[in-house]
Amino acid sequence: MRRTRRQWVTLGLAAVLLAALCVLAAFWQWHRYTDREAQIHLVESNYTSEPVPLDEVLSGPGDVLDADDEWRPAVVVGTYVPDDTVLLRNRPVNGTPGFHVLVPLRTVLDGEAAVLVVDRGFVPLGQDASGPAAVPDPPAGEVAVTVTLRPDEPASDRGAPAGQVQRINTAQVLATLPDGGAWADGAAVGAYGQMRAEDPAAAERLVPTPRPDTDPGSHLSYTFQWAIFALGAVGGYVALWRRETRGVTVTAGELLAAEDPKGASRPRRERTRRRHVDEEHEDALVDAAQARDTSSA
């Protein structure tokens, strides 16, 4: 049964809509791929570069880390404030739950007192899981800390126990301190550092922050898959239309007649030629019978 024009229009619109959705999904995956490639390029360009003094990247208190300087190593000289240590929760390392230890570091930038929050590393959960079993102390006195610079994370609107935060946001970290970080007012910078090394080194080293992930993911392959789906939606509609409007309808009787005694289907041209031969043979028999009847009369 052939489809009506209305049915063809409905199928065509459905095919176009499906193809359009697939194209949108392909572009979305493509943009995710290009964004990921840009992030990987930034990591590869900055992470392995030579450390520079912090004041070459951040000019002074209140300065915000430029996006192009993310992942750059820098050396900052100052003193830790261990009494104002804050714990970052819900940030596992290598699948192990625990806390990151955030310690403010007093330093000087452009002749002014400044504060940089340093993620000194990771400690696993304690027995009751509400905090770590122990938090190793940072080095006392003046220390030169090599850090990987990262921009502040967006402030979290989720609550956390006293002395803990959900994200590394300098203002939020300092506000968690008992005095609300009043001693650091106007001195903080808009960035934090992931510790790589300390000189002098601490008596007990924390689990270091892992290197940044440079896996590109599957966004590019998903882009091609969605593009193929879009072509398939349109191509399937065209193939269906061509088959129904240009195809030849074959009845069950013709299929049975096409079978030879062995059950094998003969080619169409051979069946046609055989039918013509049989018709000529029948005509010859009829003519011979008529001639015989005439001669006997």
Strand and helix layout:
Blueprint: H1 5-46, E1 52-53, E2 73-80, E3 86-88, E4 98-109, E5 112-124, E6 142-151, E7 164-165, H2 170-175, E8 188-199, H3 219-246, H4 252-257, H5 268-296
Parallel strand pairs: 1-2, 3-7, 5-8
Antiparallel strand pairs: 2-4, 2-6, 3-4, 4-5, 6-8
Helix pairs in contact: 1-3
Q: Could you characterize the architecture of this molecule?
A:
By secondary structure, this protein is an alpha/beta fold. It folds into 3 domains: 5-45 and 217-245; 48-199, no CATH class; 252-296. It contains 5 helices and 8 strands. The protein has helices spanning 5-46, 170-175, 219-246, 252-257, 268-296; strands at residues 52-53, 73-80, 86-88, 98-109, 112-124, 142-151, 164-165, 188-199. Helix 1 (5-46) packs antiparallel against helix 3 (219-246). The longest helix is centred in the first third of the chain and has 42 residues, at 5-46.
Please supply descriptive tags for the structure shown above.
5 helices, 3 domains, five-stranded mixed barrel, 297 residues, alpha/beta, single chain
Gist of the model:
This protein is an alpha/beta fold and 297 residues long. It has helices spanning 5-46, 170-175, 219-246, 252-257, 268-296; strands at 52-53, 73-80, 86-88, 98-109, 112-124, 142-151, 164-165, 188-199.
Strand order of the largest sheet: 2-4-5-8-6
Rg over C-alpha atoms, rounded to the nearest angstrom: 39 Å
Helix share bin: 25-40%
Beta-strand residue fraction: 15-25%
The computed structural class is alpha/beta
SS field, number of helical segments: 5
Envelope shape: elongated
Oligomer: single chain
How far is the first residue's CA from the last residue's CA?
A: 57 Å
Tell me the total number of β-strands. 8
Task: List low-pLDDT spans.
Answer: 248-265
Total individual domains: 3
Major beta-sheet overview: 5 strands, mixed, barrel
> Taking all residues together, what is the mean pLDDT?
84
Task: Give me the strand/helix succession.
Answer: HEEEEEEEHEHHH
